[in-house]
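Let's practice the habit of predicting before peeking. Look at the sequence and jot down your guess about where helices and strands might fall. Then scroll down.
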Amino acid sequence: MFRNKLSQSILSMLLVLAFQSSTVLAADADIEREFDVAANGTLTIESDAGEIDVETWSQNQVHIVVHDPDGFEVEFDQSGNDVTVVADSRGSFFGLRRSNISFTVQVPVRYNVDLNTGGGKITVSDISGEVEVDTSGGSIDIGVVSGGDVNADTSGGSITIEQVDGDVFADTSGGNITVGNVTGSVEVDTSGGRILIANVSGDISADTSGGNIEVGEGGGSVDLDTSGGSIRAGWAEGPLSAETSGGNITLAGGSSRVSADTSGGNITIEGGSGSVLADTSGGNITIRNVTGEVSADTSGGRIELDLSSVTDSSGGDVSLDTAGGDITVRLPANLGATIDAVLNTSRRGRGSYRIFTDFPLSIREEDDQIIGSGDINGGGYDIELETTNSDIHIISVAN
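Done guessing? Here is the structure:
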């Protein structure tokens, strides 16, 4: 009697363990499993290869189908509300066998996913939870994510993230990155593609070695860097920095410091209430509607600065320098400033260039220079202008 009861107890325990953890050897037929769970659990998939497609549904269950698992050993495990799938390839000693394995999964709407594949596309539909995905050779597509952060990494494909109520971290070694609206911060990096980011409530950091960068508004600091493309950015509430080695920079401006640097393109800054720094080795610089200090330098283009909205209490010092282009500055008629404008001329260029000013400045010639200087409206901010073999225009604008 006792021996029979003991045998029945052991059998019951083995059945429970078999349900919680099971291993399926490689087979041609699809493998299908279903697990009862509650919200806020985590699905973990670790596979040596294969595409992964995760969708949400209204059931409190995790439903998994492993397609074409031939050549793989697949293990399923459940611990509480967490479900883990591990697929190990039983390939040759020299590498993986050719495989068509893939995963189709349904999870509750409020659920976390941690997906890792050695080679294949990863897709996650709209979900409420943490999303962490990693593939060594495929693109990543993620829908609307609420209530969690997104961490996406691929060694060879594009990354698309529709919308996130949290932070976003995305990295690819060979593809484009596209991110929709984000309530947290965004940090993205690609070695060979363009970056597109919509509006972000927090900080933005975007870096690419070979493509354009375009971002919307940023609620914090914005740091953009590309080695081979143009940069376009919306308004930034924090410091805004844009740097490229080969393209134009167009910035809406920001509430704090704005910095733009390019080795081969034009710079346009449309506004700003903090300091502005612009530097290009081969293009024009245009700055409008700024009220802080301005420093602009170009080795081969014109500089245009509009300070129409500056007042005696809201402006800052100005320094504009170009080695080969006209300088045009628009100032309020009643602004107090001290102006020092220098026009360098070569022997061949003497008599061809002038300083044009609406303000009463002292204009004189010294050696190979034409100098215009003086205090306007009692003096104030220092405005220093310098160019070579080009004209300088200082224009009065009615308040």
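How did you do? Helices lie at 2-20.
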